[in-house]
Amino acid sequence: MKNQRAVVSFALVLAFCGWVPVAIAQDARGMKRVDAGPRDSTAIEQSDSVASYAILVGVNRYRDQSIPRLNYAVADAFAIRDLLVNKFGFPEENIVLLTDSLATGTNIKSAIGKLTSIDPASRVIFYFAGHGETITISRGGDVGLLVPYDANTETQAQLYASCLLMADIRSFSTVVSGRHMLFLVDACYGGLAAVTRSLDAEPDEHITQEYIDKLVTHRSRFIITAGGKGEKVIESPDWGHSAFTMALLDGLGGGFAARAGNKFVTEKDLGEYLSQKVSAYTKNRQTPVHQSIEPEDEGQFVFRIGAAAPPMVVRMQTDVDSAVITVDNRAVGHTQRDSLSALVRHGRHIIIASREGFKSDRRTIDVGDHPLDIQFSLAPILGRVELFSDPPGATVLLDGRTVGHTPIVAREVPYGKHTVLFMLLDHEEKSMNIDIKGEATQSLGAHLVATPELIARGIYRDWRTAKTTWTWVGGIMTLGMAAGTLAINSNANGSYNEYKTATDVSVMNSKYSDYSKQLKLRNVAAAGIGLCAVFTVYQLIRGVSYEEALHEAQQQRLSLGLPSGIQSAALSVSIRF
Fold first, then answer.
1. Half-sphere exposure (CA, 13 Å, Cβ side) for 198?
2. Which helix (H) or strand (E) holds 280?
């Protein structure tokens, strides 16, 4: 089974709701199972007046190892047995407890079969804690299954044949001869066996003995399942039970399911209490469902309890002020000077201390006959930030405090809004905001813009470099042209001497022609010498000032349409030293 509380490995889509172990409470405070305590006189009175029977089933481990193990189903079954024996006087010999390998389908049905001939005035509780399953049939609708220890999940047909059908609940309620029968199913909704009709509300006034006498003398078949359709049944190591069974133990063992001033808990009172309490325990992820199985039933299963204990003072202290305190998802106030006192009813409760910017501290407590002191510790929420800049090496100030130089990786920052300032020499400062809402890492980068002065210095440097370079170029070209002129002049003189000494007319004409060309080339070279000399002298005497460079930087900024005094990152890169 792939679902955490599912049983299925076949191909049909299953609408399942089972048991899912989750860590609801974050802090284990030595939570103990709710103990019903010693047998009291009211329990003896009930046991003497009517025979009481119970079939209790709890399965943690299944024969089919593909079915996920549960953690507290067996413990839940034992806790219910202790409650029934110690609090409500159920004779131990009348209780059948089937756990793990004993909880086979045959054993469960056999235990039910033995109740077919009990006294008609008896009352019976059937409790099941284990995996539940829902399969969708081809014609529409759901078929609910309770999964015994020996369930076979290889095929849908084998699963169907080896499980207890929720529809069998109706059959069980028919064959059992007891007057009152209460089914407590700590598994999934699974095709609820009850009829679909609204339940009449209990009278708002104090329940009288006459009203109770009327309920106990009429027949009743009632079922309460741990969750609605599609919901998963939750258990927690902090409770040591499922949410359903923990609320059941509190409601009956502590008497909290009884209406104010009453010493009785009817099946409907219990169903309503479980719906409210389990919803609170599980943050509305699981809400028990309760219904009557037979529409004509006029009676109810009734538990007689003692007077409810008065609420007890619980003093809560936090290491931060103004923390919100909630009890069972209901806000009771804020801590002032780090403390708060509240009256809390007996039983098990979930208390949470929270404050914006801090991790909540969740505790599960048992309120008894003595005041409690609870110390909460709220750790601040710290996010992580990665800080970068272009160019790197910028000094970073977080809320005015220097935290380092970029790049900064995985810096812890407290919850809330913060101001980050990037500073780099000769660059415009860059201020940015960051909002830390959790522990996730955020990245923040800034493009730092060079100041006009930095750009002007770059321009000035470039100009100076260009002046020096072109002066050298002009000087070298002047010298080169001079050397070339001298060489040409020497060649021209040679051609002229050859012309004068020549005797042949053709030779004379050729040499004279060479002489004329070389004279023209010499004149051109001489002119080049003059131009190079003028260029060199110009570079030598040309003035280069920082003020001109600053003006040029401003002109470049204006040409890009940038605001006064701010330069673009791209421009600063193009002329950077």
1. 3
2. helix 267-281
What is the maximum alpha-carbon separation in the chain?
A: 165
Of 425, 451, 467, the residue nearest 553 (C-alpha): 451
Phi then psi for 339, rounded to 5 degrees?
A: -145, 160
- Residue that is written with structure tokens 């029934």 in the block: 84
Q: Judge contact between 152 and 161, C-beta under 8 A.
A: yes
What's the pLDDT band for 18 if we cut at 50, 70, 90? Answer: very low
List 374's β-bridge partners, or say none: 316
Integer CA distances (angstroms), 214 to 123, 272, 368, in order: 15, 21, 34
Percentage of the chain beyond pLDDT 90 is 21
Helix axes 105-113, 166-175, angle to 10 degrees: 30
pLDDT band at 492 (very low <50, low <70, confident <90, very high): confident
Of the candidates 116, 110, 117, 106, the one whose C-alpha atom is nearest the C-alpha of residue 96 is 110
Structure tokens at 212: 């109770």
Q: How far apart are CA 137 and CA 191, in angstroms?
A: 11
> Beta-carbon neighbour count of residue 217 at 10 Å?
11
pTM, 2 dp: 0.53
65: left (phi over 0), alpha (psi -120 to 50) or beta: alpha
Rounded-to-integer distance, Cα 202 and Cα 215, Å: 11
Is the pLDDT reported for residue 59 higher than 90? yes
Q: 433 - beta bridge partners?
A: 419
Determine the Cα–Cα distance for residues 57 and 66; give it in Å rounded to an integer. 20
SS3 label, residue 224: strand
CA distance 188 to 129: 10
Q: What CA–CA distance (Å, rounded) separates 376 from 340?
A: 11
Q: Do 59 and 45 contact (CB within 8 A), yes or no?
A: no
Strand-pair partners of 343: 313
C-alpha–C-alpha distance, residues 214 and 456, integer Å: 101
Average pLDDT (96-103) is 95
DSSP character for 138?
Answer: T
CA atoms of 101 and 60, how far apart (whole Å): 9
User: Would you give the distance in Å from CA 537 to the centre of its chain?
Assistant: 76
> Are the C-beta atoms of residues 79 and 34 closer than 8 Å to each other?
yes
What is the number of alpha carbons within 13 Å of residue 521 lying toward its C-beta?
A: 16
Dist CA 567 CA 565 (whole Å):
7
Task: Please give the full DSSP string across 384-417, using - where no structure is assigned.
Answer: EEEEEEESS--EEEETTEEEEESSEEEEEEESEE
On the 0-12 / 13-18 / 19+ scale of CB atoms within 10 A, 250 is buried
The full DSSP string for 87-104 is TT---GGGEEEEEGGG--
Partner residues linked to 366 by β-bridges:
348
- What are the DSSP calls for 291-358, one per residue? EES-TT-----EEE--PPPPPEEEEEEESSSS-EEEETTEEEEE-BTTEEEEEE-SEEEEEEEE-TTB
Does a cis peptide bond (omega within 30 degrees of 0) precede residue 371?
A: no
Return d(Cα 118, Cα 123) in angstroms, integer: 9
Say how far apart CA 452 and CA 135 lie, in whole Å: 75
Sign of the torsion formed by the C-alpha atoms of 10, 12, 13 and 14: negative
